[in-house]
Amino acid sequence: MPVPSGRPRVREFGLEIGFMSPGPKNSILDVPGVAVGHTTLIEGDGKLVVGKGPVRTGVTAILPHGGNLFREKVRGAIHVINGFGKATGIAQVQELGVIETPIVLTNTLSVGTAWDALCEYMLLKNEEIGTTTGTVNSLVAECNDGYLNDIRGRHVKKEHVLSALAGASTEVCMEGNVGAGTGMSCFGFKGGIGTSSRRLTGEIEDRFLGVLVLANFGTTRDLMIAGVPVGAVLESRQVPPNPPGSIVIVMATDAPLSDRQLGRIARRAQGGLARVGSVFSNGSGDFVIAFSTDGRVGHASQGMIIERRLGDDSEEMAGIFRATSEAVEEAILNALFAAESMVGRDGNSREGLPLDEVRSILASRGVLD
Description:
Mean pLDDT: 94
Helix content: 10-25%
Number of helices: 8
């Protein structure tokens, strides 16, 4: 699936990450029913004027299925690798093991606006919330795009969140400088949205695990591509300083998993992060949100709930662990490969990953011809 910029994805570049096969779209959208929408905000140039710009930010929304999520919740889990973040809705997911709203990603200082918009979206669809039943747990996560964006201006508005939700597609998931990824940085280069998937085999054949990342982390010297320390060579380019930053990883699958098993899988996302060079720095907010679309949980369900799930020690579960590491690694690289150079506030800039130089480095190590 090509990216809007025309820059190649990792596999189009000639690299195959891991051993498992990707799904047909090689994106989180390979999980049936999952939809992704973006609102991208780019406006102005030059010196920062708080409240006016330059604006380099946006919203990304992930919908686990096309139905009413409050009434038909999905099994979910959240793993906090490093808690230097401002996400909302985490505690209830950890406690109850279900997700009952879409997942919204944006910049750090727009979390409140995103929460309010997502709450309104759910209230409009569910008149019973707050009257004949309980309240709703809006799930919002963030990364800091303040190096390129007028983050203090809080340019994300309610209508931008609602637009991302309304425009969510099950067919196309754009990457790079889109949605919440518009102003993000990764390993000192331009970062943003990336996605990948893996086909699951065995008894769960024709099922998938898909990953979407908001990549905004890493120091140039640590960047690894296909096991090659590419960043150690590129560091000589003297890219602008890059603080540790953060990442949000959203994982979806249609495999039959309990919330506890989803937690096991979410923890394996760290393997994919390590393979690209993350050191889980102190100042990095690293969150993994995982859900299964198999076996929805009705809001009004009472009594014992019988759930179908894989065996914890099955070959299929071991395969999902591998799929997780591979898909996370490739999704992060897809974000880097897709993102184009961008100039933001006060002339701050992030160069797109220099793919010609990367090709030369990988060829010198025998990874590419």
